[in-house]
């Protein structure tokens, strides 16, 4: 009987210690609303993987200040109703969320504000950066409108450099979604106007002679490109994802002389490969480091992480950088929130707003959030695709916050 009692006591002690050990494990839950298999999945999949990999790396190295990160993510397939359902399931379980598209982020923003959950969207729509309207939305990328302004400024400079008379003629090519329209057209959001590239073009003396809609999953764009040719567009700014390859291939078939500038989601190694020879000479506004930028500490870390978990993947498109960088910045905010003693939605918000010129190791430009602006980064470089490589043709260009 004594042996039985001793054994029972030992079992109870072990159970008590194991229970205490479990209770001591500290966890912070964050959400993820990603498009992995939907129409933007070609870029959304690598983005989600970048987020996931950095979370795993953090956890494998002790977490953040002793807290493990639990990522609860959903593939919403770029469908707003599914994003709303995913979000509702995350409320009350997470202190922050990594988001994705423009349409769903806009639809969620009133709920995000109500529930006080910091939401780091992969949509870089400018009207999501004003804390007086969307106090819990944060962007680490240069806004689409700012990217388009930089593109227009570059076009104007190239026009003048070439000594051409008159104004440069430009076409906007986009998909008819919130994401597609965001760079080009003034948005009225919650009663406030957010001017975009259409207004900036007038200001600096660029003629927008045409505007063409090409669906995100378009397999041909011939009719739109012929319309653009009739209007005499010398340049076209593209806000697409993989449809960029379709546009470039059709432009080559038609023998167009128009020069193309893709905004950040519209170009990467994958899309250049899809476009083949038609990608030669295309320009690209890119606010993020490339896999090949091995001189940067952030890229060195990113490559180390990716190689550890995906040893067969020897290369990455920039979308992986974007997801990795988003989680890198969020992790810093979580670290600060822990030190501030407030690991809640408002606590993470305050931590994000304490970032001043935060160095991501070159993954992005320096990140700053304030109580007046949630534009994280305001600098980018313009690249050109030449002989199978993206070559920077400008230094970092900064825009006003």
Helices and strands, with pairings:
Blueprint: H1 2-24, E1 26-34, H2 41-60, E2 67-75, H3 80-90, E3 97-98, H4 102-115, E4 119-120, E5 137-138, H5 144-161, E6 169-174, H6 178-181, E7 187-189, E8 192-194, H7 197-204, E9 207-213, H8 222-231, E10 235-239, H9 243-254, E11 259-262, H10 269-275, E12 283-286, H11 297-309, H12 318-340, H13 345-352, E13 379-386, E14 389-392, E15 397-398
Parallel strand pairs: 1-2, 1-3, 3-4, 4-5, 6-9, 6-10, 10-11, 11-12
Antiparallel strand pairs: 7-8, 12-13, 13-14, 13-15
Helix pairs in contact: 2-11, 2-12, 3-4, 5-7, 9-10, 12-13
Summarize the structure.
The chain has 401 residues and is an alpha/beta fold. The chain is built from 13 helices and 15 strands.
Structural class: alpha/beta
How many discrete structural domains? 2
What are the secondary-structure elements, in order, as H or E? HEHEHEHEEHEHEEHEHEHEHEHHHEEE
Number of helices: 13
Broad shape = globular
**Could you say what the CATH architecture of the largest domain is?**
3-Layer(aba) Sandwich
Oligomer: single chain
Cα-atom radius of gyration: 23 Å
User: How much of the polypeptide forms β-strand, as a percent range?
Assistant: 15-25%
Sheet with the most strands, sense and barrel status: 8 strands, mixed
Instruction: Kindly report the CATH topology of the largest domain.
Output: Rossmann fold
Termini separation (Å)?
Answer: 77 Å
Mean of all residue-level pLDDT scores: 93
CATH superfamily of the largest domain: Response regulator
Flag low-confidence runs. 1-23
Per DSSP E runs of 2 or more residues, the count of β-strands stands at 15
Helix content: 40-55%
What's the CATH class label of the largest domain? Alpha Beta
């Amino acid at each position: 009987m004594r042996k039985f009692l001793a054994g029972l006591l030992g079992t109870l002690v072990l159970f008590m210690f194991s229970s205490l050990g479990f209770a001591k494990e500290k966890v912070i839950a964050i959400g993820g609303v990603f498009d992995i298999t939907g129409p933007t999945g070609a870029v959304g999949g690598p983005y989600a993987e970048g987020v996931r990999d950095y979370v795993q790396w953090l956890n494998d190295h002790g977490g953040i200040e002793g807290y493990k990160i639990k990522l609860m993510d959903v593939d919403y397939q770029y469908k707003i109703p599914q994003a709303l359902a995913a979000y509702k399931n995350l409320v009350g379980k997470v202190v922050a969320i990594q988001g994705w598209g423009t349409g769903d982020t806009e639809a969620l923003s009133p709920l995000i504000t109500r529930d006080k959950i910091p939401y780091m969207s992969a949509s870089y729509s400018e009207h999501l950066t004003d804390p007086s309207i969307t106090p819990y939305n944060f962007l680490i990328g240069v806004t689409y409108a700012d990217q388009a302004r930089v593109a227009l400024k570059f076009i104007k400079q190239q026009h003048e450099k070439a000594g051409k008379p008159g104004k440069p003629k430009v076409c906007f090519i986009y998909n008819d979604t919130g994401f597609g329209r965001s760079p080009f057209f003034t948005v009225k959001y919650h009663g406030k106007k957010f001017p975009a590239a259409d207004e900036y073009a007038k200001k600096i003396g660029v003629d927008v002679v045409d505007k063409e809609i090409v669906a995100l999953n378009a397999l041909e764009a011939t009719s739109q490109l012929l319309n653009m040719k009739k209007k005499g567009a010398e340049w076209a700014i593209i806000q697409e994802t993989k449809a960029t390859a379709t546009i470039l291939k059709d432009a080559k078939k038609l023998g167009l002389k128009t020069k193309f500038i893709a905004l950040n989601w519209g170009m990467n190694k994958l899309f250049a490969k899809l476009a083949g020879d038609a990608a030669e000479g295309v320009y690209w506004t890119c606010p993020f480091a490339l896999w090949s930028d091995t001189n940067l500490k952030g890229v060195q870390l990113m490559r180390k992480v990716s190689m550890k978990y995906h040893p067969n993947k020897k290369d990455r498109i920039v979308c992986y950088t974007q997801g990795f960088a988003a989680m890198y910045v969020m992790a810093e905010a979580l670290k600060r929130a822990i030190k501030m003693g407030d690991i809640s939605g408002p606590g993470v918000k305050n931590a994000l707003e304490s970032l001043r010129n935060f160095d991501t190791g070159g993954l992005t430009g320096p990140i700053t959030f304030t109580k007046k602006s949630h534009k994280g980064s305001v600098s980018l470089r313009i690249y050109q695709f030449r002989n199978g490589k993206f070559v920077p043709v400008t230094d970092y260009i900064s825009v006003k916050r």
